[in-house]
Amino acid sequence: MPVVPLPQRLPLPRLLPFALLLPLATACGGGAAGAQDSKTVTVTVGYQSKTINTVTAGTLLRSLGYFEEELAARGKKDGLTYKVKWQDYATGAPITAQMTAGKIDIGSMGDFPLLINAARGRQLGQPTRLVSVTGYNLRGGLNTVVTAPGSPLRSLADLRGKKVSTSVGSAADGTLVRALKQAGIDPERGIEKLNQQPSVGASALAGGNVDALSQFVAWPGQLAYQGKAKALYDGADLNLPTFHGVTVREKFAKERAGVLDDFLKAQRRATDSLRNRPVAAAETVAKETGLPAEVVYLYNGAHGISTFDPALRPELIAALEKDVPILKAAKLVGDVDVDSFIDPAPLRRAARTASYPKADAAKAELWLKGRATTRTFDSPKELLKAAKGAEVRAAYVPDALTGTLWFANRAVWVADGSDLRAFVTPAHAKTYIERHAGARVVSYADAVRRAS
């Protein structure tokens, strides 16, 4: 299906889209991508250090130095000197701006921004291609709607008529739009939507200026960990995959195919490192970003919300196609030919194997202070027994309905006879209680007491 060109001037929607919050003028900064003299080639990589679902193509990869190692080996063969210029951004929007200006070669971003990347690239004569995935969640658990800790809101239906902060054009906004529709609420008229960058929205929630915040990894987990928010809606309720991936300028991919292969080899090595040493990876990312390691591990840990695998899985691509209508409705893109945007060939050349096995169901996990490893448990109750009296750095439990991992002391606990179950949201707990006579909500402290 051919790509329908976007108009030169996009009609402005009711809210300035998140994808355009940072003007294209930012593309003027930095050197030319793929810059080179006769003996030196500079590769410019755009990444999002605090969007920790991209670390295998960004923060962690940079700290490990694997890309530089691969390029050094290439240089010994062809006599060239390769340099990597890393550029850190808060969102995917400025990465797209830089790529369409020819100033970034390789970038990583979420699924919704990737589609905007594809559309803007075609429109501006700098087509891009999706070449790998960083991390994903097959149910959509990477996006969460949160409220203030003392909020009376108990379910998504309670958002009718309320102020909600999100980032239009992001996967978090896509989750909000879909979830509201399922709840019978018009996402445009049923709520007052504020289009804000994540940090601004977090401040608005803390200041009582909005009733809820819909955001992507790692904002919901960070706010919950800090006691500044509680989960209202688990994106996994949509049961629709969400992911982050790597995009490359098509021209660069053709002219420097070997360099792109080196990047994907390095990404694979970084993925191996994260999967084999998840605690060490969380500590590294925390050091580089200033995020709490406990929050990083919630998403990137051994049983974290995100699964890291570069493979372009069919179910992820199918979900990407379902995202296009959401962005079209927001007037952020026209038709996007997803098939022509995806290029699996570089990954096939670079990867040793097609993909990792799919992740097993999440388990309860305990991280004790001073330990470089964690312990897993077959049930939340067993974790609580082990945590009592111990010096706990972090304890994680999977939601009994969706499997989404959450902090044990921030979860909603339900006692069902002698059994104890944890849930990310009050709505999940309510659903379980309605199906199990005698079950009731208990506090975290009471859950620990009962487990012992």
Automatic annotation (TrEMBL):
It comes from the Bacteria. The keyword Iron does not apply. Keywords: Signal. The keyword Transmembrane does not apply. Residues 1-35 form the signal peptide. InterPro entries: SsuA/THI5 (IPR015168). This is ABC transporter substrate-binding protein. The lineage of its organism: Bacteria, Bacillati, Actinomycetota, Actinomycetes, Kitasatosporales.
